[in-house]
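pasting for ref
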Amino acid sequence: MNENVIRTKSCKLAIRIVKLYQYLGNDKREFVISKQVLRSGTSVGALVREAEHAESKVDFKHKMAIVQKEANETLYWLELLKETDYLTKEQFQTIYDDTVEIIKLLTSIIKTTKQNLKIN
């Protein structure tokens, strides 16, 4: 069985986001922005899983577009955490890069799905 790359990467992102949330709460005593990044970052994987059982290709495309929005929101919160010095540039960069990679995958998936909808 082939690996579902977006499922794997979004789950790994969720794990990193949970650990980031724990770090921010325990070490930095930051509770507001960290809760926001927790919500958006973990919802990426949850929504990918939901999209696996879409009722149609149109529903799948719609669900993946929502995932893309959540991933983009996650970027915002990560940027805010960096700019307010809760994250160092190094801490920020790898998780940011992973999120951007997921957005690129989602963009490709959505584009391919749209093309397939035009064909059928």
